[in-house]
Amino acid sequence: MLTVENINCFYGHTQVLRDFSLAAEAGRILCVMGRNGAGKTTALKSIMGLVRPRSGRVMIDGVDIAALQAEEAPRHGIGYVPQGRRLFSELTVGDNLEIGLMARGSGDDVKEHTLDFFPALRERLDQRAGTLSGGEQQMLAIARALCLEPTVLLLDEPTEGLMPSMIARIRDVVLELKSQGVAVILVEQRVDAVLQIADRVLFVENGRSRDTVEAEALRDSPDMLDRYLGMGH
């Protein structure tokens, strides 16, 4: 289990997260929602050590990783798929996966298991990542994170700009990971996509974690969506 406890994060002198907290449980999907600039991406970066909290704790299985170097988060089983994918575009699909495997010393069996999620990538192992379609690049970014054998997976806007068929594929993979006991934290703007798969939704406003609600309750009572996301969602 991953818990973020009252972290405060800054970019320079500007405070972005204020006493921010969340909890991600094994086999559950937590969706983080809020307006643009609310602090959602910074929250994921703080878990990964890419933005160092000035105070507060990031706990995974009883270990506080908030003060550790960024490369330590993957070694503790946290996979991260950033917004915009951040692949090594000049390297091949296979090379990108190898980089994922190296983080925890995983072997070919893990790569094979990962490719079972995304069979299309198996046919493109020697292709440069930068020549893949947007949907294929997103698949590769997720596959690279899965090469860590994560117990916690962070996904930042994974369906952004993708075709419906690719969105459905990613949704299926996320649900399969959930069934295998992975804790998933999903930043997503598309309410329809979220309510189909989330167990709980955490609303973020002005850098603060506000209400955490069962997704089922939001399906029946959309007024909270209007409150935190604005009308028209």
Your description of this structure?
The chain is an alpha/beta fold. The protein folds into two domains: 1-77 and 151-233, P-loop containing nucleotide triphosphate hydrolases (Rossmann fold, 3-Layer(aba) Sandwich); 85-149, no CATH class. It is 37% helix and 26% strand. The chain contains ten helices and ten strands. It has helices at residues 40-48, 72-75, 93-102, 108-117, 119-122, 134-146, 164-179, 191-197, 215-220, 223-229, and strands at 2-11, 14-24, 29-33, 55-60, 63-64, 78-81, 152-156, 183-187, 200-205, 208-214. The chain has a six-stranded mixed sheet with strand order 6-7-8-3-9-10, sandwiched between helices. A four-stranded antiparallel sheet has the order 2-1-4-5, with helices on one face. Strand 9 and strand 10 form a beta hairpin. Helix 3 (93-102) packs parallel to helix 6 (134-146). The relative contact order is 0.19. The mean pLDDT is 92.
Q: Give the mean pLDDT.
A: 92
Under CATH, the homologous superfamily of the largest domain reads P-loop containing nucleotide triphosphate hydrolases
Helical stretch tally = 10
Biggest β-sheet strands, sense, barrel = 6 strands, mixed
How much helix is in the residues? 25-40%
CATH T-level topology of the largest domain? Rossmann fold
- Give the uncertain stretches in residue-range form: none
Architecture (CATH level 2) name of the largest domain: 3-Layer(aba) Sandwich
**CATH class bucket of the largest domain:** Alpha Beta
Q: What is the C-alpha radius of gyration, as a whole number of Å?
A: 17 Å
How many beta-strand elements? 10
User: What proportion of the residues form beta strands (DSSP E)?
Assistant: 25-35%
How many structural domains are formed by the residues?
A: 2
Q: Which structural class do you get from the secondary structure elements? A: alpha/beta
| N-C termini distance | 31 Å
Within the largest sheet, what's the order of strands?
6-7-8-3-9-10
Order of helices and strands: EEEHEEHEHHHHEHEHEEHH
